[in-house]
Specification:
650 residues; three-stranded antiparallel beta sheet; 22 helices; 5 strands; 47% helix; 3% strand; globular
């Protein structure tokens, strides 16, 4: 036990040393090379940008290039055609010649994946803006969709919140059709199989199922394109005004539109196309918030000494602070410790007090809860709110009455956001209309925000912490939801973390918290699955590839964060004494650095780390730099408490 306590103490001190003087924690949020490629695209289109940073972007892009010449959604993953096209174009925009050996490899990879025509709508519209694709051949993203009333089946609030933030400004871009002519040597005609002139750029009909939703929406799409060509757009002016107003409203009390990279980028381009000048206060503000996401390393880093500039998809201070505060409280840091109180007060200052998009569906509930970033008032989410509520239990706040009122508002909001089936989604309620996956511009595969087992597990744990039991119908509905979601092998799918290890540990903790017996078959089957997928080195790991191939669930190199999740899942299932748990604890202790930290670096990958966070399955993945710090500490703490509890009961 001494080695566990020693490891805990070192981890606690390391985490406390990372706290900002304002009270929060915010680790780097790492993503893929698409961000740097799009950064170069935007500044090229608008004629803006720091050339030094853009040049360093190229070094960051090259850092992630695969051996086959392409670029992946996550380190170690297969090359992706969208990323290959974007990164190839970025290199050419920065002056690289087509005969450069690295571009030759990149081109061969893109062509092997089907060429430019295989890209999604977002990529194609960006290409159109630089004259590298035809606006008539991309799916229409009409701003008129904002005019549909909320009672109409196809209204904008039936899209996921992140799709909303991306698509509204993209609809402005589509309507305005910006065009910047490139020099011939900057073009990418060579990425079209057989050349661009010989390529059929239009979307293909579903010939096997003539009467299908895909064909219905494709027919509608062609009608909209015909209307564009003959200028039959009676509502276009009104729709653009609505889109402009919608964006400007959501700039307020937010660090950029949606406080996420793609929405912020699209909003900047949209504003410029609506006639806003580069020195307009709205553009300046939007650009400043966008540039804040950058991490400039003109001298490189210890893991990669080449000068680079990289972009983060967003900031994660509320999420990281809640996780760290909750973990430090579990680890025994006193409830009155000034550092914990400062963190709690910072979180309390971020409470949502204005109605956002969620209120279009959820009526008659007072605003409450928390968002993910520094400021994003329109988009609180259930997951962050649940974790913040857990974290606030770690302190004994002198402002006890105020904190209690904040907590009750947040709990009421969370309960109001419960979906029909008993589970919870992230940002919206009952955002589940699968018909939207057939809309042509929905090919980014992230149109919906359905209830998930992982979030529901966290909310069960939170509700139990605040005194809710299975006697409450809402709690019991959530329990039944997660039981129905269990996979045949005993695991649970992880929507917001990679992957089944994440989902399984959260559900098991939630079930334990509400008093669901660990002797029940569902729990024991889940525990057996966790033990079964343990690596021979004693740790656990799982790759982002399991979203594409579920048969590989639980398979991957061991990482500190995923090993911690597995241990936490086993402990929640009543397993404290098995060899699996002992080996997992030993794995964490042996790989902890002297300063109390852990790393998740991939061998031989230029300082790249394993990604264990999920943005959108099969679309976008994340490397949370603090996951590998606070989850191992939580695992060690929970293990120590379990053994101490057993000793008292003996």
């Amino acid at each position: 036990m001494d080695h566990v306590i020693h490891g805990m103490n070192r981890s606690v001190e390391w985490l406390l040393g990372q706290q900002d003087e304002q009270g929060y924690w915010c680790g780097e949020l790492e993503a893929d090379s698409m961000l740097e490629a799009d950064y170069i695209f935007m500044h090229t289109l608008l004629g803006t940008g720091d050339q030094g940073k853009m040049t360093r972007c190229i070094n960051e892009i090259l850092r992630h290039q695969n051996e086959d010449g392409g670029w992946s959604l996550y380190p170690g993953g297969p090359s992706n055609v969208n990323y290959g096209v974007k990164c190839y174009l970025a290199l050419k925009l920065m002056g690289w010649k087509a005969d450069h050996p690295l571009l030759v490899k990149a081109r061969e990879n893109v062509l092997s994946l089907g060429g430019v025509v295989q890209c999604n709508t977002f990529t194609k519209i960006y290409l159109c803006a630089l004259g590298q694709y035809d606006y008539d051949a991309v799916p229409a993203v009409p701003p008129e969709m904002l005019l549909f009333p909320t009672w109409f089946y196809f209204n904008i609030y039936e899209f996921s919140s992140w799709s909303r933030g991306i698509l509204v400004p993209l609809s402005v871009i589509y309507a305005k059709k910006p065009f910047k002519k490139l020099a011939p040597e900057q073009g990418i005609d060579e990425l079209f199989i057989g050349g661009r002139a010989n390529s059929d750029l239009h979307l293909r009909w579903d010939r096997k199922h003539l009467f299908s939703w895909r064909n219905f929406f494709l027919f509608t799409d062609r009608v909209m394109h015909w209307a564009e060509r003959v200028h039959i757009r009676p509502l276009r002016k009104k729709a653009l005004k609505k889109a402009e107003k919608w964006m400007l409203e959501r700039f307020e009390r937010s660090d950029g539109l949606g406080a996420i990279y793609p929405a912020m980028l699209n909003a900047i381009v949209a504003l410029r196309n609506l006639g806003y000048s580069a020195d307009d206060p709205q553009v300046i503000r939007a650009m400043d918030e966008f540039e804040k996401l950058g991490i400039d390393c003109p001298n490189g880093t210890p893991d990669y000494p080449t000068p680079t500039f990289r972009m983060q998809p967003c900031f994660s201070p509320v999420w990281d602070t809640a996780q760290v505060l909750s973990t430090l409280g579990e680890a025994g840091v006193p409830k009155t410790d000034p550092r914990l109180l400062r963190a709690a007060d910072w979180l309390l200052s971020k409470e949502v007090r204005h109605k956002g998009d969620w209120a279009e569906k959820v009526k008659n509930v007072e605003p409450g809860g928390w968002y993910f970033e520094f400021n994003n008032e329109f988009y609180p989410d259930v997951d962050d709110t649940g974790e913040v509520l857990l974290a606030l239990k770690a302190v004994q706040n002198p402002r006890e009455r105020y904190q209690y009122e904040v907590e009750q508002r947040a709990i009421n909001w969370v309960l109001a956001m419960q979906c029909k089936g008993g589970g919870w989604a992230a940002f919206d309620k009952d955002n589940t209309k699968r018909i939207f996956q057939y809309v042509p511009f929905a090919d980014h595969n992230a149109m919906l925000d359905p209830p998930t087992a992982d979030i529901t597990g966290r909310i069960l744990e939170m509700l139990a912490t605040y005194g809710f039991t299975r006697a409450d119908k809402r709690v019991e509905a959530a329990v039944q939801f997660v039981l129905k979601e269990q996979e045949s092998d005993g695991s649970w799918f992880g929507r917001w973390g990679v992957n089944y290890l994440y989902g399984t540990f959260l559900v098991l903790r939630g079930l334990e918290a509400v008093g669901y017996s660990y002797l029940e078959p569902a729990v024991q089957q889940a525990a057996e699955w966790i033990r079964m997928v343990q690596n021979t080195d004693g740790g656990w790991g799982e790759t982002c590839g399991t979203y594409d191939d579920p048969n590989q669930r639980g398979v991957g190199p061991s990482t500190p964060s995923q090993t911690a999740w597995a241990i936490l899942g086993l402990l929640a299932a009543g397993d404290t004494r098995s060899d699996s748990v002992a080996k997992g604890i030993r794995w964490l202790i042996e790989r902890q650095h002297e300063d109390g930290s852990w790393d998740e670096l991939m061998p031989g990958r230029n300082g790249e780390s394993y990604y264990t966070g999920t943005g959108f399955p099969r679309v976008f993945y994340l490397g949370y730099h603090l996951y590998k710090q606070y989850f191992p500490l939580l695992a060690l703490t929970t293990y120590r408490k379990a053994l101490e509890r057993e000793q008292l009961e003996a």
